[in-house]
Amino acid sequence: MKANIHIFFWVFFLLVIGISCKHQAEIGKDFIIVDFERCMDEERLMKISEIADTVEYLELKTPKDIIVTRISDVLKVDNYWIVRSLAGICLFTEEGEFVRLIGRKGQGPGEYLGIRGIDYDPKRKEILVADAQRILFYDLEGNYIRNVKITEDFFYNIGISDTVLWTTALGIHQEKHLVYAFNEQGDTLRFIPNSNYGMTVKNTDGVYFVHSRHEKEFYRYDSQLYLKNRAANDTVFRLSSSDIFPHIVFDMGKYKLPIQYEAWFSNVDYEQHASNYWGIPNVVEGDRLLFLTCQRRNGVGNNPYEPNEDDWRYMVYDKKMGSGFVAKGQLQDDLLGGPAIWPRFSTQEYYVGTVEWYELYPDVKVGVYNLSPELKKQFDGFGHSTNELLVICKKKQ
């Protein structure tokens, strides 16, 4: 394999210097610094009308044998929605009508073993699917085009910038790299080394790692690709072709989980201490605001299958003002009177949230919300077979 490798120790040096010299949240010349502690100390109500002109609940209509639940990716491509869920990758019209599945699970040509991530290449109009040890390419008609093999032993998710493919790792002690960039010929263009690689850990009974279902390593803003790697939980990078630049630094302060409490290092210590620390599994960026989904590194509830509200904070950061706060109860729906909304995804025109109808229905049934007539009529038409809903919020212009 041809190697043209640049190791970016200077990136980490720059970040360390920036954090140590600036204690307040501010916008630097080259990247944004967010004082996480300070933002956590302030809480206030925020309404969806402050960021959106309209709200629409989009029903995703599918054949009876396809159930859309636990949505993990939403992309807006031309006049379509691409939705990744437990059902696989589905293509929908803008009105929510099912068009087709993209790829299938299996071991045959053009089939995947499991989906680790998806992205879209607007230049070639191709959907990228990260599978075990390879990237699969499909067109919008669902036709399998080709695949590119991955030589890294560990990789998760996929993002494309120009023609450069970017993958990420978990950052555990068995992985050499945190981030890895390559072209379709298999040439390594760039990587960031994993400082945890080869570390002697306390675990002796296996390898542990923790994953949030809301984890999203890559996002797009203003046609640029951004990376918030799981291991670099306090940094967002801007990716441009094979170049990488620090974009946002989260000064986590007392909320940053020490390495000795990471699950991959000591699962016993993780279980005992990690609930005191916080991570940011998802970042949604707008022209002025950042929407940061914040989660305890370990839940405080006794039942892992029943989410505890105290495990989550919903943070809003103003890039222009250099300040942020926790949005109490997410964003209040003062437009349709529905449940609180939180952006999980973003397109050029919309902020997009999701809600499971089966979770929402009990509160709707007993009249918890003061629904507008139009929303009440729509909800009355939903039933047991209704898929997870997209909450489409049109951005203020």
TrEMBL record:
InterPro entries registered for this protein in UniProt: 6-blade_b-propeller_TolB-like (IPR011042)
A Pfam family of this chain: DUF5128
Protein name: 6-bladed beta-propeller
Species annotation: Parabacteroides distasonis
The organism's taxonomic lineage, starting at the top: Bacteria, Pseudomonadati, Bacteroidota, Bacteroidia, Bacteroidales
